[in-house]
Amino acid sequence: MIPLIKRHIKLFLKDKASVFFSFLSVFIIVGLYILFLSENIASNLPEFNGRAAFIFLWMFAGIVAVTTATAPLGALGKFIEDEVSKKSDDLLITKISRRTLAYSYVYYSFIIGFFFTSFLFIGGFVYTWVSFDLILPLSISLLALLALSTFMHTLLFYLVTARLKTMSAFSGFSTLFGALIGFLAGIYVPIGSLPSYLQKIVILFPTTQVTVLLRNILMDDVLSPIQALLPNEAYEEIIKTLGVQLAWDDQLLSSQFSWIYLLAFTLILLVVVLVKNRRKNNVLS
Predict the structure, then answer these.
(1) Long-range contacts of 118-125 (CB under 8 A, 24+ apart)
(2) Residue % of the chain over a pLDDT of 90
(3) Average pLDDT estimate for 11-27
């Protein structure tokens, strides 16, 4: 298993195009942030100390959440490439079972996703420190959230890409997902400004739950000044509109709900992957 994982990682990192496209959504979000997202969010906020840090961390939490999805998706391109080129058949000539080969792609994609996400987070940590004199909180819950989100997206995209038969289909799916994830995760357009039925669809999208939990963790210090400035009702309206806290109709959703939702979603995906790979091995045995 370990030699297989090392092989996949080595080949992926050699392919500069795959590495670049794994970050494409991040580049798009940063570009939109520079062009107009920053000003658009600022226009909806009152003047207060730390407003620039507030806006940056709001966007940064979304970027980190998106990376936990796009990085493992980009890595799974190697899975499709090996299937299409029949290199996976060559690997199966050895004593490697098809199930072991399948799990090697899952583990490798998780490792790539978690590494890239951590790398991005460290960059944001340094930028926040230098630009805003803020130290982002580092905690077990933050580490657990990044690991859980990366693992969940790895399982989800493993199941999706296993259904794709060509590199063209994979490229099309990756491009479509990369274009939509900013909307689905409530980054391009604040969740509260969407129609009610769209808000509910976005809330059901698991990446949105990751984004909200990250905003709760990373924005803790920058929420205090605006909370002290505004009446409670106005403050709650702003954090609901910006998706710092989710609301289903008028009912606020707690962080505990988001954690349970993500854990349940991941558990279901894990069971489906285990059953799928067991059937695959039985068919070929």
Answers:
(1) 118/146, 120/26, 120/63, 120/64, 120/67, 121/64, 121/146, 124/60, 124/63, 124/64
(2) 34
(3) 80
pLDDT at 281: 60
In the three-class reduction of DSSP (H, G, I as helix; E, B as strand; rest coil), residue 252 is classed as strand
Bridge partners, residue 133, by sequence: none
Q: Computed over its alpha carbons, how large is the radius of gyration of the chain?
A: 20
Distance CA 227, CA 234 (A): 9
Distances (CA, A) of 209 to 40, 94, 174: 23, 42, 21
pLDDT tens profile 205-264: 899 999 999 999 999 888 888 888 888 888 888 888 888 888 888 788 899 999 999 999
Going by C-alpha positions, the residue among 154, 132, 162 that lies closest to residue 49 is: 132
Residue 43, H or E segment: none
The backbone region for 134, taken as left when phi is positive above 0, alpha when psi lies in -120 to 50, beta otherwise, is: beta
Q: Contact 142/217 with Cβ under 8 angstroms? A: yes
Q: Higher-confidence residue: 159 or 87? A: 159
**Per-residue pLDDT tens over the stretch 71-81:** 999 899 888 88
Q: Which residues contact 34 (CB under 8 A, 6 or more apart)?
A: none
Task: State residue 248 phi and psi, 5-degree precision.
Answer: -100, 110
95 pLDDT tier (thresholds 50, 70, 90): confident
Task: Write out 71-130 in H/E/C secondary structure.
Answer: HHHHHCHHHHHHHHCCHHHHHHCCCCCHHHHHHHHHHHHHHHHHHHHHHHHHHHHHHHHH
pTM of the model: 0.89
The label of the residue with tokens 């491009």 reads: 175
Determine contact, residues 13/22, Cβ cutoff 8 Å. no
